[in-house]
């Protein structure tokens, strides 16, 4: 066939095959759909219109098929969208964050997709709109704000935006006196930007030719970006670079890291053209973050076998590892997630027994206390502020039944003040819902936690449908937090479940270590064990489970579809990382070298190659019956390139013995995060939920 795909009536597109064969590590690898990878993929991320007509034609044929197959759910999707939107307070705003004479906030207008960045005098007074992202997004098919930072004198706002979905941000500088942007534009950046103390100099990260954040530059107001000064360049393609500023405003912080090793350089913010100073040279599999107070650095690290991390101090003038002195010791099973250093207090967010907690330490007396919470499962977060010399800590709290709350906490008096509670305009009564924390046994005997949410009127008798969500990579923990989106399914009788599988850090760092590299397959078998346990204990129906995951969680979806297709009625895979082996063999792709510590390097390590060959979803599609699938992609996605799900779907269509429903939709104007507007994203959520409801026969609409 010369066409990209053959389409007959209402039948699914059948992609043409053009096998490409190569031998790697002694194995012949045959890829029948390699042609879907655009040779000009770098240009496509900048401008999706340059995608080749043949590839575009195939993706558009799949989109048209998706629309036809999902058409019976149109009314249901409209209903779901209205429900989802009805739970969002449209004219919402964040709690203002004080900084010197002002307080800064983010505010939304009713019906608006994008936020306003605003400030008011600290003592109260008239609000000033610093940036209207809706105006900036006008007539653009995609728009997303990146990093932004106001100068220490409050005169300038540096802000970044991505207009393709390819995560290439342009930095602009706004004069807050006039409300207009300068002519200066800094292109092709990673989106982070920070000001030095002089209010004239800013630092940012630029992407290299392979779309990796690799260089830190210094820009001076009034000069062209072509003359910006290179401050730091990372030589290792496996490391990504970031730039920030310490809470004390004393240092510009350059952080370079992969998934297991890090290194920090400091620049005196008062001397922006001065040299950078290395804190401690990188050591493989050792991580550290730093903050400062007075003449000392505070270092959060896993050095010296502190797997679950400890906090040490070091003198500013000699911060190397040999001077590190323990302040908060390592306690196995108590994972320190992050720390914040104030002028008089050290705050750490940690997790023990699967639940987070906040601990406050008086840095003068050494006395510690934890902030207590009562629910069985909940989510906590530290809300960053601008001020160092304060006794006020801001944090967020929610549970699967409790909407998000923002508290200010006085670290001296230990009084907490509720500053904001998430409003659900259409109404929400926590007493109508039940949340539980369950545990199921993995094949190797590990106990895997699962958080569940269901309506109190749902019969827990083995007949309820279930949406089972999982991720399980990079040490990322999926919190048991409040989700207004989950309520539409739960109100229709679903049990909503989160599987806290290995590969995350839900039970400590070992939980991450036991779900990566040579132990990656534990992630997949944990998820399957959770599905089986929910069925065996009578929580859900065995034939009404829909699995959902995105990105690396999409790889999980591909793996469980191959390993246990009969356990799941359906699979929702959002921007799924499914072509694992081919991607990890291609060192030119943006994320490949940085990903080797997570998955292994199949180019140099035969065992890593064999392992990936064993579980890579694309390479393990075989002739068998597969569940129904909804697969979502973004054409400008630099993290999981569009051709991964495209190739996977093509192979599934050609291999499945049962002609399963496979709905594949590519957003032709977006990347990894999907649609950029807050309501546009809800259309995608409505599509996912309509799919789940229809295939489990929970609603009248039938698509399969």
Overview in brief:
By secondary structure, the protein is of the alpha+beta class. Helix content is 19%, strand content 34%.
Structure description:
This protein has 704 residues and is of the alpha+beta class. The protein has a domain at 333-423. 19% of the residues lie in helices and 34% in strands. The protein contains 13 helices and 39 strands. Strands 32-33-35-34-36-37-38-39 form an eight-stranded mixed sheet, with helices on both faces. Strands 9-10-11-12-13-14-15 form a seven-stranded antiparallel sheet, with no helix packed on it. Strands 5-6-7-8 form a four-stranded antiparallel sheet. β11 and β12 form a beta hairpin. The longest helix is centred in the first third of the chain and has 18 residues, at 53-70. The relative contact order is 0.11. One of its GO terms (molecular function) is serine-type endopeptidase activity. Its EC number is 3.4.21.83. This is Oligopeptidase B. Pfam families: Peptidase_S9, Peptidase_S9_N. InterPro entries: AB_hydrolase_fold, Pept_S9A_N, Peptidase_S9_cat, Peptidase_S9A, Serine_Peptidase_S9A.
């Amino acid at each position: 066939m010369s066409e990209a795909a053959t389409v007959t009536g209402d039948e699914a597109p059948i992609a043409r095959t053009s096998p490409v064969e190569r031998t790697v590590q002694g194995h012949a690898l045959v890829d029948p759909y390699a042609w879907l990878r655009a040779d000009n993929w770098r240009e496509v991320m900048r401008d999706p219109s340059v995608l080749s007509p043949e590839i575009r034609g195939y993706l558009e044929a799949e989109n048209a098929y998706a629309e036809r197959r999902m058409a019976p759910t149109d009314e249901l999707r409209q209903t779901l969208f209205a429900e989802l939107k009805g739970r969002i307070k449209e004219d919402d705003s964040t709690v203002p964050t004080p900084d010197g004479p002002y307080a800064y906030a983010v505010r939304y207008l009713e019906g608006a997709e994008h936020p306003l960045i605003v400030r008011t005098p600290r003592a109260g007074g008239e609000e000033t709109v610093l940036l209207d992202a809706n105006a900036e997004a006008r007539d653009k098919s995609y728009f997303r704000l990146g990093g932004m930072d106001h100068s220490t004198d409050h005169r300038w706002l540096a802000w970044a935006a991505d207009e393709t979905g390819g995560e290439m941000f342009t930095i602009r500088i706004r004069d807050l006196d006039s409300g207009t942007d300068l002519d200066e534009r800094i292109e092709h950046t990673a989106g982070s930007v920070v000001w030095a103390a002089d209010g004239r100099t800013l630092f940012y990260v630029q992407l290299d030719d392979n779309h990796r954040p690799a260089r830190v530059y210094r820009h001076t107001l009034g000069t062209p970006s072509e003359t910006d000064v290179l401050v730091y360049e990372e030589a290792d393609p496996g490391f990504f670079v970031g730039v920030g500023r310490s809470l004390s405003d004393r240092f510009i912080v350059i952080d370079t890291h992969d998934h297991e090793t890090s290194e920090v350089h400091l620049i005196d913010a008062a001397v922006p053209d001065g040299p950078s100073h290395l804190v401690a040279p990188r050591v493989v599999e050792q991580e550290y973050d730093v903050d400062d107070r007075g003449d000392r650095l505070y270092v959060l690290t896993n050095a010296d076998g502190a797997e679950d991390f400890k906090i040490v101090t070091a003198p500013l003038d000699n911060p190397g590892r040999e001077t590190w002195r323990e302040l908060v010791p390592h306690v196995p099973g108590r994972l320190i997630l992050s720390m914040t250093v104030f002028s008089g207090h050290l705050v750490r967010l940690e997790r023990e027994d699967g639940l987070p907690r906040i601990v406050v330490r008086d840095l003068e007396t050494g006395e510690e206390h934890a902030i207590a919470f009562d629910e069985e499962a909940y989510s906590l977060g530290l809300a960053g502020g601008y001020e160092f010399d304060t006794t006020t800590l801001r944090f967020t709290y929610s549970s699967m039944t409790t909407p998000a709350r923002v508290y200010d906490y006085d670290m001296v008096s230990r009084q907490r003040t509720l500053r904001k509670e998430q409003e659900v305009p259409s109404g929400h009564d926590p007493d109508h819902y039940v949340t539980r924390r369950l545990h199921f046994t993995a094949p190797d005997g590990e106990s895997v936690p699962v958080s569940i949410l269901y309506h109190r009127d749902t019969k827990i008798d083995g007949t309820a449908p279930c949406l089972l969500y999982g991720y399980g990579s990079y040490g990322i923990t999926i919190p048991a937090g409040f989700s207004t989106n989950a309520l539409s399914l739960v109100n229709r009788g679903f049990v909503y479940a989160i599987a806290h599988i290995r590969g995350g850090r839900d039970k400590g760092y070992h939980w991450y270590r036991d779900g990566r590299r040579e132990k990656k397959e534990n992630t997949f078998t944990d998820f399957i064990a959770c599905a089986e346990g929910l069925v065996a204990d009578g929580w859900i129906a065995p034939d009404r489970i829909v699995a959902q995951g995105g990105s690396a969680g999409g790889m999980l979806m591909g793996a469980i579809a191959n390993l246990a297709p009969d356990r799941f009625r359906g699979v929702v895979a959002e921007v799924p990382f499914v072509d694992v082996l081919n991607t990890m063999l291609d060192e030119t792709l943006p994320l490949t070298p940085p990903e080797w510590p997570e998955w292994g390097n199949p180019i140099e390590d035969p065992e890593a190659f064999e392992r990936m060959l064993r579980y890579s979803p694309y390479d393990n599609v075989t002739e068998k019956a597969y569940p129904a699938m909804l697969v979502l992609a973004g054409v400008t996605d630099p993290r999981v390139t569009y051709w991964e799900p495209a190739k996977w779907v093509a192979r599934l269509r050609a291999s499945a013995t049962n002609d399963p429903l496979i709905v594949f939709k590519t957003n032709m104007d977006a990347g990894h995060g999907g649609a950029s507007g807050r309501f546009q994203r809800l259309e995608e959520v409505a599509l996912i939920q309509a799919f789940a409801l229809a295939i489990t026969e929970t609603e009248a609409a039938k698509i399969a």
